[in-house]
Amino acid sequence: MEPLLIKRIVFDFFDGKATAIQRKYLEEWLTDEANHEAYYQYLDEWESQRPQFSVDAEKALTAYQRVLEDDQPTVTPSKVLPVSRSGLFQKWLPWGIAASITLLGLLGAYVFRTQILYETHRTAFGQTSEYKLADGTKVTLNANSSLRVPRFGFGNKTREVYLEGEGEFKVTHTANNQRFIVRTADRFQVEVLGTEFVVYARAKGKRVFLSKGKVKLDLPQGQQLYMRPGNVVTVANSGRYRLTQTKTARPYVAWKDHWFYFDNTSLTEVADQIQEQFGIKVVVPEPKLAQRRIAGNFRAEQADDLFQILAELLTINVVKKRHYIELTTPKHP
């Protein structure tokens, strides 16, 4: 479909003039995720040409969810107004959310609420990526991680993002001292004004390393903890935490350049890191071998690089099985 044609259809829809055939075209076009960014660009342009309105966003969200749950027929919307993703029109936030929700209801709810409200940055196994948020904050995501950033209202009243995996944050301080919050699973969050820190949030627990500035942690059991530069807080899944001090940041930021930092690290822990970074399950069936310790810095952009290092360093066999890699000691005749 020609860009000018689909753009006119989007504009007609939000002007309340779209025909049934146009809505059908729009539905088919939006089933391709590659068109989503163009859709938001059209919303920005449409918004800049229309006067602003106000609407109850929460009420709109509730109505949308009721439609999904009850499978009620959708109703052709009246004139609606989307909001810009760029932050230039954040005061129009509520109506923008309602516009997107109404559109999705009409199109049969082909995407979920999270896709409407958040832009998600993801990294694949073995990949690290850098992002710059609208407020100037720089984020580096480790492999197998994701960061959700609100499409609407980010930097308006607060700055909140949602992390799964591991990421380094270099937070920009704002003139009005606006707080920046990193939320993870299990009601764990890091709150700052302007600082540099690394957050680790995976299945086996949470960890925060503070490089510069000062942060406040809200722990799962309702406790609050203030950190200073060099502090490392490790939180177990049970909720218990441990505060330590480190002299160097390298163990917590080495991953940015594909380095693995081992400091008396057991082979079992190395296997866990390989699965987190590269998505490859590693099995060490021999208890004695599993407890062998490693120290040193090793660069590995691919899993095979690290397996070769381990084979030479520990004199072990790396055996490829159907669904996993097995590490064993050589059998001597």
UniProtKB/TrEMBL annotation:
Residue ranges spanning the membrane: these are: 92-112
What keywords are annotated for this sequence in UniProt?
Answer: Membrane, Transmembrane, Transmembrane helix
Which is one GO molecular function term here?
sigma factor antagonist activity
**The keyword Protein transport is annotated on this UniProt entry:** no
**Lineage top rank: taxon:** Bacteria
Q: Does the keyword Hydrolase apply?
A: no
Question: Where is the Protein FecR C-terminal domain positioned along the sequence?
Answer: 260-319
Protein name, UniProt field:
DUF4974 domain-containing protein
UniProt organism field: Larkinella punicea
Upper classification of the source organism reads: Bacteria, Pseudomonadati, Bacteroidota, Cytophagia, Cytophagales
